[in-house]
Amino acid sequence: MNHSSRSRQGFTLVELLVVIAIIGILIGLLLPAVQAAREAARRMQCTNNLKQMGLAMHNHVDVIQGYLPIGARNWNYSTWVTFILPYCEQTARYDQMSVKYENINVTTQVDIGGARVEGGCYRCRVNFDAWQERIPMFNCPSDFQNFFYITGTSQTWPKQSYIACGGATAIGYKSNKFGWAPSYWALHSSGGDSNDVVEDGGALFGIQFPAGDTPDERTANFSGKNGMVALSSAVDGTSNTAAFSETIQTQSDTSHSASYSDFRGGVYRGDAAFFTCYYEPNTQQPDELMSNGYCHKSSAIVTPKCPCVPEQSTRGSYEVRQSARSHHSGGVNVCMGDGSVRFVSDTINRAVWRAMGTAKGGETVSQ
Q1: pLDDT digits over 338-347, tens only?
Q2: For the stretch 59-98, what's the b/e string if a residue is b when 16 or more beta carbons lie within 10 angstroms of its beta carbon?
Q3: For the chain, how big is the Rg over CA atoms in Å?
Q4: What share of the chain is helix, strand, coil (3-state, %, to 5)?
Q5: Averaged over 314-336, what is the pLDDT?
Q6: Residue whose C-alpha is closest to residue 243's, from 200, 276, 204
Q7: Alpha carbon distance 162, 165 (integer Å)
């Protein structure tokens, strides 16, 4: 038999290695495309979440005679995220909650884990229980799904991925007076630019004060439309004014504090519920929280992309500032006052971004 005429069976080792190498290269090319497709789907879901929030906001406007939800009740109490629940198919959850304010000195306080706290406070047992089940609409699929822990009352609260716009400056707090800082110069003691002072031009969401805690015309008590802002007051145009954007649910870190962990994403209380447009989205400039206890330990960034320092005001008041942040590449989703959602780049011009943060700043710039 002529052996040279036989047909060869199988592959040589070299041929097999070449095929494996080619397959490996194809997989290497395919994986980034698959990851990009998954992130695109997650970003689309995030966009849809914000559209639903915008719709809930406008449902509130339609029912409450043109008024937006209350941004926050003072510093520690319920925020907009509670007050839009009946307008986004969460009425049953809202009906379980205590939204009536009661002063800390009254006898009808709610006892939680030995701590006596205000009725209507976010820490009340009925509110704590109602929030334990996450609401998908309030969580971006690209974000962490974290909790923040309050050791004083042994409560673990789920965080959320969205916060409301609090203007272009900061959230101010002095002598129990909670509201938007009328002007702001960030990081006073950390090399801030003394020429970079921003005057606030209003925000879509107002602050509600209890009786006896009335610093100015934003006064009275927790009743009626006090603290609500009319959508018609957005004279810059609702399509030019930011309403909601994203935050990263920071990881809990109690190594620095016996009482609290990083509050960002815990939007049930006023100081955590807002972002401002002072710095661009996903800025490397740190957020400023009210104290070390509300931030993370200073020796490390516990959550990537989320630097943080205690507030830096030199004016004798707390001035809290959070920037919009997300895990999306290159920017954040923003729901505007008209309910539309746009993707805002990290490289947006700072003046334009600050103009988007004001409802009646009279700016002429546009994106």
Answers
A1: 999 999 999 9
A2: ebbeeeeebbbbbbbbbbbbbbbbbbbbbbebeebbeebb
A3: 25
A4: 25, 20, 55
A5: 88
A6: 204
A7: 10
